[in-house]
Specification:
Nuclear Transport Factor 2, Chain: A; two-stranded antiparallel sheet; globular; 7 helices; 6-stranded mixed β-sheet; alpha+beta
Length: 211
């Protein structure tokens, strides 16, 4: 009888283990309720660990549309710049302070974000539409991760290190499909700077194969 009971317990434990997600996501309920960023103080973690944690929290906030949570990671003094492609254009890329980001997020204000590669068509969208349809155009929570390293490389000029010297960045990379010869890859990069003991995002850069 005792052996049968132990066997049942073992089978139950194995069953629960199989149901567990190998890559558990950040609790979206907590993100919604707290509306606060998680603690990523340098003294609490190594820089690389802290930025991986922050990177993942940013991805989760973008995935579920909690842009108010994302706003809490915007640099308090430098704000955040959005670049459609690897080449950062200081004159054309949209830049928001945290205050302006929160101001325009719920509005229907249309911004010009840049020109689409290939067609040259001007990409216009609200801030929320840009975040949903361009920044998080693919599920980057299921991507490959790199710290201060470029996984996605194409034929477009990548000037991240020139524009943001002495900073750290993370890359979330989704490889291209075999069907398209791997050319339909996508990458999402976050550039960080430390401010008063915490890491904040100063740039959000998308990248993909360009013509």
């Amino acid at each position: 009888m005792r052996k049968s009971f132990l066997a049942i317990l073992l089978l139950t434990a194995l069953s629960c283990e199989k149901k567990q997600d190998k890559n558990p996501v950040v609790s979206t309920d907590n993100l919604k309720r707290s509306n606060e960023r998680a603690d990523t103080k340098p003294e609490a973690f190594s820089k690389e660990v802290a930025l991986k944690k922050t990177n993942d929290e940013l991805l989760q906030a973008l995935k579920v549309g909690y842009y108010d949570v994302f706003a809490n990671y915007i640099h308090p003094e430098k704000g955040v710049r959005f670049s459609m492609y690897a080449f950062v254009n200081r004159n054309e890329d949209k830049h928001f302070s945290k205050t302006d980001f929160e101001k325009y997020l719920p509005t229907k204000t249309i911004f010009t974000w840049g020109s689409r590669d290939g067609s040259g068509a001007i990409y216009k969208a609200t801030l929320e539409q840009y975040l949903k349809n361009w920044v998080f155009k693919k599920d980057f929570t299921k991507s490959d991760y790199a710290f201060d390293t470029f996984l996605g490389t194409g034929n477009s000029l990548n000037n991240l290190k020139e524009i943001y010297p002495n900073t750290n960045f993370t890359e979330n990379y989704i490889p291209g499909s075999e069907k398209n010869g791997g050319m339909d890859w996508n990458a999402l990069r976050f550039v960080f700077e430390e401010f008063e003991g915490k890491y904040y995002v100063i740039a959000v850069i998308n990248d993909e194969w360009t013509i």
